[in-house]
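Example is below:
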Amino acid sequence: MVRAYSDMREANYKNSDKYFHARGNFDAAQRGPGGAWAAKVISDAREKSQRVTDLFKYGDSGHGVEDSKADQAANEWGRSGKDPNYFRPPGLPDKY
């Protein structure tokens, strides 16, 4: 997951967020049940902390709820062993 996060920051590529979510969870799940469990715990904590941050920044406006749901769907996609390239945006360098 750290590698996917690092690659996401380095790539800084528009519309690539879901791909890196799926890839990080996929990579972790490939390490076995413990990896899938850790990926779920980390992903859930990350999304919950982001919701709290959004609450302070934007109030109870629902800001970011749909994006958070989409992130969690990409996380689950990757953890379930499905190909993260489903979320790969056109033009993202092959390096990633």
The chain has a mean pLDDT of 93. Helices lie at 2-11, 17-29, 33-58, 65-79.
